[in-house]
Design goal:
- It is a single chain.
- The strands form 6 sheets. Strands 12-11-8-13-16-17-19-20 form an 8-stranded mixed sheet, with helices on both faces. It has a 5-stranded parallel sheet with strand order 2-1-3-4-5, with helices on both faces. A two-stranded antiparallel ribbon has the order 6-7.
- The chain is α/β, with parallel strands linked by helices.
- It contains 14 helices and 21 strands.
- The longest helix has 18 residues, at about 375-395.
- Cytidine-5'-triphosphate binds near residues 277, 306 and 317.
Length: about 400
């Protein structure tokens, strides 16, 4: 699997840099072409000569002293790479990549490359857990970087904690997984909705729901990573992932217009949004003052976006239920003429709104029922997209 793959191995300056020798060695033994790029501080921990001997390739350490084989080093490496793996990655490189700073050969190579980038952080626990490092990692993740979580154990600084570079096998497995990542949605147009719509009462208040948008965002990211062109129509205030066209809406009516526009050329519509079924009949142009002892809001029905969405694209809906999960989900599948419905018991621990995990059951038009275990929302997203991909190839 690694044979003839070009792996740019970025090594940055932490004590775990010595472990990169083992990674480079195992990758080379597996048949990969390993191009090592070291930051200046990495060369304080291990010598380029060691890596040159291990990989049999020139090692690049500077923008200014090309190793001879390439003309514009960072561009050549950026283009040649099937994957860029940075192991160990210090807090410093993580911050520089998050900010788009390109002041050395490694950061320039990453910025210039379209290849997937895997980052394996290794540092002292406090540095890793520092909110700024966590924010930077979250930013990289949202941009599609693959983060290999550090292991816990004894640290070079003497203490115990999270921050150790994981074993070589774990890093190589993550590289392999990324290289074989499916691009089954290459060239497909996928529209995803996310978040809970907000229906205004007056300029200050709205009728809303508890949806966080996490499931829809995970779907948009997963579809992007599998090669699709993605439009994410979101009613959540969170910024959308990069590499995805983001359309921000507030109300169900706005979401319906955005869906109609985006699905003109779509292959699939996945409605993960929690759409308000009702909206206030009259929206007060001024803030409603408290006067009477009670206030009655008259609500009118919103359109059912999914049921009314017209076109030959695959339709995937979600059924968020608190009782009679499968029955209700089946009914929705039929009534809204869906290809797949994702049934979601929101009363279960680890499922539903504002959590990172979900436990769902997929039901398709043919009546196949697939119960999935508790997974991260990203894993659920990939399972849904596996099915969408299958349906698209059958067409
Ligand atoms: N949906 C929609 N438009 C609406 C309501 C829901 O497109 N006005 C979509 C949701 O995005 C979801 C699916 O329909 O994919 C099911 O939504 P859900 O809220 O579970 O069900 P409802 O159809 O609203 O039915 P009920 O509230 O009675 O359970």
């Amino acid at each position: 699997m690694l044979t003839n793959k070009t792996i740019v191995l970025g090594i940055t300056g932490g004590i775990a840099a010595y472990k990169a020798v083992d990674i480079a060695s195992k990758l080379t033994q597996a048949g990969a072409k390993v191009e090592v790029v070291m930051t200046e501080s990495a060369t304080r921990f291990i010598t380029p000569l060691t890596l040159r001997a291990i990989t049999g390739r020139p090692v690049v350490t500077s923008m200014w002293e090309p190793a001879g084989e390439f003309r514009v080093e960072h561009i050549a490496l950026a283009e040649a790479a099937d994957i860029i793996a940075i192991a160990p990655a210090t807090a410093n490189i993580i911050a520089r990549l998050a900010a788009g700073i390109s002041d050395d050969i490694l950061s320039c190579t990453v910025l210039a490359s379209k290849a997937p980038v895997l980052v394996a952080p290794a540092m002292h626990t406090a540095m890793f857990l520092n909110p700024v490092t966590q924010e930077n990692l979250a930013r990289l993740k949202a941009r599609g970087f693959i983060i290999v979580d550090p292991a816990s154990g004894k640290l070079a600084s003497g203490g115990q904690g999270v921050g150790r570079l994981p074993d070589t096998e774990i890093i190589i497995a993550a590289i392999e997984k990324t290289l074989t990542r499916s691009s089954d949605l290459d060239g497909r147009h996928i529209v995803v909705t996310a978040g809970g719509t907000r229906e205004p009462i007056d300029p200050v208040r709205y009728v809303g729901n508890r949806s966080s948008g996490k499931m829809g965002y995970a779907l948009a990211e997963a579809a992007r990573d599998r090669g699709a062109t993605v439009v994410l129509i979101t009613a959540s205030p969170h910024p959308g992932p990069s590499g995805v066209e983001v359309v921000t809406v507030e109300t169900a009516t706005q979401m319906q217009s955005a869906v109609a526009k985006a699905t003109v050329s779509a292959d699939a519509l996945i409605m993960a949004a929690a759409v308000a079924d009702y909206r206030p009949k009259n929206v007060s142009p001024t803030k409603i003052k408290k006067q009477a002892p009670g206030l009655t809001l008259e609500l009118v029905r919103n359109p059912d976006i999914l049921a009314e969405a017209m076109g030959s694209f695959i339709k995937v809906g979600f059924a968020a239920e608190s009782e009679n999960l499968l029955e209700n989900a089946r009914q929705k599948l039929e009534m809204k003429q869906l290809d797949i419905i994702v049934a979601n018991d929101i009363t279960e621990t680890g499922s539903g709104f504002a959590v990172e995990t979900n436990r769902v059951t997929l039901i398709d038009k043919q009546g196949n029922v697939t119960e999935l275990p508790l997974m991260t929302k990203r894993e659920v997203a990939d399972k849904i997209l596996d099915r969408v991909g299958e349906l698209l190839t059958k067409r």
